Amino acid sequence: MTIRKNQANLTAAEKKAFVDAVLEVKRRGVYDEFVAAHRLRFALDMNTGVYVGHFGPSFLPWHRKFLIDFEKELQKVNWSVSIPYWDWTADNTVASSIWAPDFLGGTGRALDDQVMDGPFAYSAGNWPINIQVDSRPFLARNLAYRVPSLPTRAEVDAALAIPTYDSAPFRDGSAGFRARLEGADGYLSMHNRVHSWVWGQMESSVSPNDPVFWLHHAFVDKLWVDWHKLHPTSAEYLPAGATADVIDLNETMPPWTSTTPQNMLDHTQFYTYA
Amino acid sequence: MSRLTRRQAVGAVTGAAAGLALAGVATASADDTTPAKNPAKNKGEAAKPKGAGELAPFDEVFQGRRIQGMPADDAAAHAHGHGGHTNGYRVLIDGRELQVMKHGKSGWSSPINHYVRFETPLDAARTAVTSLKGAVVVPFDPTA
């Protein structure tokens, strides 16, 4: 059974196992397929205005499936590995251990935002950026540059208190838990703000190039789980059906050919959160 | 701050940036504006053209990079046959296309800054320049 843990509680051995598995998935060429899938999804969403991966209700189940698929690839390398989650309300500074050289490495240098330490530094040779929207071949970050702070626990709690998953028109500014958590009802907030706080590739459509993407989205996913526990009688996903240009509960989420939001509602068949 | 800006611009050339950035750097040396750490300027709030509207064309040097924006019809003459989605407006950074998309009332975005919305394409272009630190845009067109 896959148990996702708070990254702050990982042992040194667990951190190393995760990093090693990520590096091996990268070496196999599979990692970049995930980056490319994210870039393609984002571009298609933007071009068509049908928001599948972002800015719509399927943001949460789409990323849940994306993480499950990635976690499976990690586990092909090492069955004991799971995706840790990063509680950015608690570990919310550039000095947090998540950015230490024994885990994800730190912020980039001033010159070009290039990450210079840790296993994903360009100089280490294992982390070329191949799937791009700009010419930087290295992992880039500028922590706390664009926005000085990460979302607070109070902001998270306020989002969790919203009893409705999502509402019409099921887009950027919709009222409800999903848009509030995504940060799409006021930009530079919540999930979106975390991407901007990290900067570099995390701010772009190739954000999975930064391994922190997975830890960030595991926490976002955990908050969906937490929200459902707080509102057990609320529909865990909306809309239920017949909504044009929106992924309904039983509609397939591309690029998958048979995965619907409904298929994603019971996460415990795939993993649990410690 | 202006010295720091210049150093960053020079660093961009010695670092990963292609020669395309070079032309802009010469301009940056004579340009004491746009310190990278000024969030207001990064967001384009300091020098927003007044009353011109979000679709007004622009052509300026920002942090050493030439950024141009134009309604897509005008842009067709510059596009060298690029058949991608234009969304009614085209933005170039040192001659390379930065795809910008309008999302209803929530504003504009680009692939470089995908998790935010901008009031105007000019804001999107300036923030992309700040992100790139001398790197060049690599257009990605899923329909190509």
From TrEMBL, chain A:
Q: Which positions fall inside the Tyrosinase copper-binding domain? A: 54-71, 210-221
Instruction: Recite the UniProt keywords alphabetically.
Output: Copper, Metal-binding, Oxidoreductase
List the InterPro entries: Di-copper_centre_dom_sf (IPR008922), Tyrosinase/Hemocyanin (IPR050316), Tyrosinase_Cu-bd (IPR002227)
Q: Which domain of life is it from?
A: Bacteria
Q: Tell me the cofactors it needs.
A: Cu(2+)
Q: Which Pfam families match?
A: Tyrosinase (PF00264)
MF (Gene Ontology): metal ion binding; oxidoreductase activity
Do you know which Gene3D superfamilies this protein is assigned to? Di-copper center containing domain from catechol oxidase (1.10.1280.10)
Q: Indicate whether Metal-binding appears among the record's keywords.
A: yes
The family this protein is said to belong to? Belongs to the tyrosinase family.
This chain belongs to the protein called: Tyrosinase family protein
Q: Please report the organism this UniProt entry assigns to the protein.
A: Streptomyces jumonjinensis
Automatic annotation (TrEMBL), chain B:
Record's signal peptide? 1-30
Q: Where is this region: Disordered?
A: 29-55
Q: Which GO terms describe its biological process?
A: melanin biosynthetic process
Checking Gene3D superfamilies in the record gives: protein ne1242 domain like
The record ties this protein, via InterPro entries, to: GriE/MELC1_sf, MelC1, TAT_signal
Please name one Pfam family that this protein belongs to.
MelC1
Question: Do the record's keywords include Transcription regulation?
Answer: no
Q: Which GO terms describe its molecular function?
A: copper ion binding
Entry keywords, A to Z = Copper, Signal
State the family named in the UniProt similarity comment for this chain: Belongs to the melC1 family.
Its name, as the record gives it, is: Tyrosinase
